[in-house]
Structures are given as structure tokens and as C-alpha cells.
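Example 9 (inverse folding). The structure is encoded as follows.
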């Protein structure tokens, strides 16, 4: 198979570029992500408290995966071949590569499981029908199976010899950050299939993936009126009114929708 690669090697192709910018991004986004977690804990309306734990669970895994990909592991990949090295904090302390790979796997797997749990909770709350999981033991078994899969789906590698209104922001909170990951992954897929090597684009792809957490937090805050108003009040030093937008809160039941 024919392959092509860049003929020059600049700073933008180096691991120093990727590591430096990834660590800068982590330092900028971590306070934003922590603020998003505070909004979920303290500013979630009472009628939406049933989703708070699941939303916080997803947000926590988002932060963890960001810290792993952008700071602790920070993989420096050599697409189109599936080869890379770690240039993150773990490498400073000579943490074994297989442990770093496993940590990254757990972070991304935990994020995927948290997304599934959030949508199952919203489906269980809003939908009445034959496809709803009624029994608690079935639900926890379902969660457990997903969790075990997230931990073990790459196990063979280690043994190789060589409410509708509330649901919309949740859907966008997941889909917009996923879109941040999709474009770099499309490039990675293209690079592997067509054997195109460009180290600068490899670095940019990994850096873009590390922006996932910040985009998730900004989307969460901007699309939720309560969180958005509180954030604006913090930024503009206005007093936060907990009764704001009370007139826009919807009470959702299986049969009726009542406006207060």
C-alpha cells in the first residue's frame, strides 16, 4: 500500500507542541469544568433533582477523561499506524505504558457508560411503555454489565503476544461535545485507511479531543436557563435570583403537561 508523509518536521509536528498546548488547555478548562459541576450540584431545580446525580456522574467522567487524555497520559500518536508514546504527567514518573493505556481506556469507557445511564434515567422518568426498565435489579444489572464492558473491552490487547425540555439540553450536552471528538476521529480514520502521515495534524487531532470537557461544560451551562443565569450573574456581579424563570418550568407527567 502506498503511503505519503510530510517532508519537513517543525515545532508543530513535535511532541512538545502537543504536550504544551494540551497542558495549557487542561489548566484553562479544569476551573470551567469544576464550575459546571458546582452548577449541577447547587443550581439544579427541585423538579429536576432526579436527573442531577446522573448528570453529575456524566460530568465527573468527562473531567476524568479530559485529565487523562490531555494531561496525565497525553498520547503522541503516529497515525496512520496505531503506534504512539505518552508525553503526559504519567511519563514523568515512569508509569508503565500498559497502566497508562488502561487508565485511558477506563476514562473513555466510564464516559460512555455514564452517557448510557443518563439516557436510561431520562427514558425511565419520561416514558411509559413496554420498553421501560421497571425492576431495580434489572436496571442495576444493566449498569453493571456496561461498567464491566467498559473495563474489559480492550482486555485482549493486554494478552496479545507482540423531561422533553430537559432532555433537549441533555441531548445537546452529549452530541455537541461528541462532535468535537468526531472530527479528529474522522481524520484518524482517514489517515489509517489512506496511509497519510502528517504529525502536525496528528497533534492537532489529540489536542481537539482534549477540548471535549470544556465544550461539554459550556454546552451544559449555556443550554440550561438556570445554570446560564447563575453564570451570567457571577460574571457580571449581579445578584442571583433563585426564582428566575419559574414561569417557564414545566411539570411533565405521562398523560399531561401543565404550565405553571
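The amino acid assigned to each position is listed next.
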Amino acid at each position: 500500500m502506498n503511503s505519503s508523509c510530510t517532508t519537513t518536521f517543525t515545532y508543530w509536528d513535535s511532541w512538545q507542541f502537543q504536550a504544551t498546548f494540551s497542558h495549557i488547555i487542561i489548566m484553562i478548562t479544569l476551573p470551567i469544568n469544576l464550575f459546571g459541576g458546582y452548577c449541577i450540584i447547587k443550581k439544579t431545580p427541585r423538579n429536576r433533582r432526579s436527573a442531577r446525580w446522573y448528570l453529575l456522574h456524566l460530568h465527573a467522567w468527562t473531567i476524568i477523561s479530559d485529565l487523562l487524555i490531555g494531561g496525565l497520559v497525553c498520547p503522541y500518536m503516529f497515525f496512520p499506524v496505531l503506534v504512539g508514546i505518552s508525553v503526559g504527567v504519567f511519563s514523568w514518573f515512569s508509569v508503565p505504558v500498559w497502566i497508562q493505556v488502561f487508565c485511558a481506556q477506563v476514562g473513555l469507557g466510564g464516559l460512555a457508560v455514564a452517557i448510557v445511564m443518563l439516557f436510561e434515567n431520562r427514558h425511565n422518568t419520561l416514558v411509559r411503555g413496554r420498553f421501560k426498565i421497571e425492576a431495580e435489579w434489572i436496571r442495576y444489572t444493566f449498569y453493571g454489565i456496561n461498567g464491566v464492558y467498559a473495563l474489559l473491552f480492550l482486555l485482549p490487547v493486554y494478552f496479545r503476544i507482540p423531561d422533553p425540555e430537559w432532555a433537549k439540553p441533555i441531548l445537546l450536552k452529549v452530541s455537541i461535545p461528541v462532535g468535537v471528538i468526531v472530527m479528529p476521529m474522522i481524520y484518524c480514520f482517514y489517515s489509517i485507511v489512506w496511509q497519510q502521515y502528517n504529525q502536525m495534524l496528528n497533534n492537532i487531532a489529540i489536542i481537539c479531543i482534549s477540548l471535549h470537557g470544556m465544550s461539554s461544560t459550556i454546552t451544559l451551562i449555556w443550554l440550561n436557563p438556570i445554570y446560564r443565569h447563575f453564570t451570567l450573574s457571577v460574571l457580571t456581579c449581579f445578584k442571583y435570583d433563585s426564582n428566575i424563570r419559574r414561569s417557564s418550568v414545566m411539570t411533565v407527567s405521562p398523560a399531561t403537561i401543565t404550565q405553571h
